[in-house]
Write a structure and sequence with these properties.
heterodimer; A: 279 residues; alpha/beta; Rossmann fold; 7-stranded mixed sheet; 3-stranded antiparallel sheet; 10 strands; 39% helix; B: 189 residues; 7-stranded parallel sheet; 6 helices; 9 strands; globular
């Protein structure tokens, strides 16, 4: 399915004019590809897609969910999580409360990754965990903490690297059983997070394009991983500003492995390892 | 002045040696950016860029999102991300679903590069064990770019090159030493 420049613009405008969603400042390449896929999956050309979006609110919501990217995994990029474990999180060890915001959490695998780490560091109890996304379906999935086993066997390797091994000292090995945190049911093809983890986070809808902080607190740590790759410069700056205003001084921002802060906001954060700290 | 603006190379199983050979044979200060989209084994997520850098005459980096493309640098698609070329001569990364069971997918890098550079692109498909890349090379051809496929007779695994040849009338079928000569010649003023 070929999506022309005009199709793309028509679609973005249709969404913007019939809802609160605004994709005008999204990075074009990815969104175009998703649009092509949506048109193909629904077997609609651009004009019938747009007509349906304009006349059917429910359909519009569904299309918005389909068009946003929702891939995540447990401990994606283990070196980032090792850095969090040994260098970043210990900075907050003496806080009486630690506020964490995972912005764009998708189906929540990394929300659980962080809680597992915090628990290993005995910082779990005093942490308030908030997680947001644009898409309420993925939030529901995140809240449930249940994932396919078969496609996610890689989770266990990542878990071993971050939780069992110490990259700074290979002689050290923590024999932490998986069932401390999740149960694996191979016959039903399910990995299910344990209750004490699923009960903790507050999941809430938030749109980084236009919403302010909807959680009413400031944060020690904000995670926003592989989200801003879908935004253009303007929108990235909006997000860096939003995060900056809602971080405590010395608070940290964790982006995806290949995301960086460019432009003016790079002066307002100081990079240490995989984290940007508010200065 | 070279008529080309970029080179893009795709490969999987059996391509590592060939890419190493290319990078160690082209001159320092090669005047075009080189995009590398290579499949790698899931557990070999790090160390790849270092291995390629060892013998390379130009710097090899795994780019960050929105990095500008500069001549004389090889950009290796990071593990677990798709790598796109935006029209503004910048890299864009994505964690969108795998394509052809691959992330990075060669097709996606080639299609976006073809869009951005049109007839000023050299697209090269090397040894590999699946069909990813064939569609991408076709797009390079359709946009008037120059298409090269490594001679299947020389490939450790022929699937990728044969799939490419099946659907595109390519400009050249070359052994690796011929690919290197072509690259050197094409940028000579």
């Amino acid at each position: 399915m070929v999506v022309t420049d005009q199709d793309y613009q028509i679609f973005i405008y249709a969404i913007k004019s019939s809802s609160n969603y605004d994709f005008t400042e999204y990075s074009e390449k990815s969104l175009r590809r998703r649009l092509a896929k949506v048109m193909q999956d629904h077997n609609l050309n651009i004009s019938s897609l747009v007509n349906k979006v304009k006349s059917d609110k429910k359909f519009l919501e569904q299309i918005v969910k389909e068009i946003t990217v929702n891939t995540t995994e447990l401990f994606r990029d283990p070196q980032v999580w090792q850095n969090l474990r040994y260098n970043i999180l210990p900075r907050f060890k003496n806080n009486s409360v630690i506020n964490v915001w995972h912005a764009g959490c998708s189906t929540g695998q990394e929300v659980y990754s962080l809680m597992i780490l915090l628990n290993e560091l005995e910082m779990f109890e005093k942490t308030k965990m908030y997680a947001t996304d644009l898409n309420t379906d993925v939030l529901e999935n995140a809240n449930k903490g249940e994932y396919k086993y078969r496609f996610n066997i890689g989770y266990l390797d990542n878990f071993d690297k971050v939780i069992k091994e110490n990259p700074y000292n290979y002689d050290e090995y923590y024999d932490i059983p998986y069932d401390k945190y999740f149960t694996i049911d191979k016959s039903r093809d399910i990995i299910k997070m344990n209750d004490f983890l699923t009960q903790k986070p507050v999941f809430k809808k938030q749109d980084l394009v236009k919403d302010e902080n909807t959680l009413y607190v400031k944060f020690d740590l904000i995670l926003c991983r592989n989200v801003i790759i879908y935004f253009n410069y303007n929108l990235q700056n909006r997000v860096f500003d939003l995060f900056h205003r809602n971080l405590y001084e010395g608070g940290g921002l964790i982006l995806g492995m290949h995301e960086t802060i460019l432009g003016n906001y790079s002066l307002k954060y100081k990079k240490r390892g995989h984290a940007y700290f508010k200065v | 002045m070279s008529t080309y603006k970029a080179v893009i190379i795709g490969g999987s199983a059996g391509s590592f040696q060939v890419v190493t050979k290319i990078l160690s044979s082209i001159p320092t200060g090669f005047p075009l950016p080189i995009l590398l989209c290579l499949h790698r084994l899931k557990h070999v997520r790090s160390g790849f860029v270092e291995a390629l850098s060892l013998k390379s005459n130009i710097p090899v980096i795994e780019p960050n999102d929105k990095d500008s493309l500069k001549p004389g640098i090889a950009y290796l698609a990071p593990a677990n991300y798709h790598m796109y070329v935006e029209l503004a001569n910048r890299i864009a990364l994505s964690t969108d679903d795998p394509v052809n069971h691959s992330r990075p997918a060669i097709d996606l890098s080639f299609i976006t590069a073809a869009n951005a550079y049109r007839q000023k692109l050299i697209g090269i498909i090397l040894s590999g064990a699946n069909r990813d890349g064939a569609m991408g090379l076709k797009k390079v051809h359709e946009h008037g770019g120059t298409t090269i496929v490594q001679d299947p007779a020389e490939c450790e695994v022929k699937t990728m090159t044969e799939a490419s040849l099946q659907i595109t009338q390519v400009n050249y079928v070359y052994r690796s030493d011929e690919i290197i000569n072509f690259l050197k010649k094409s940028v000579r003023s």
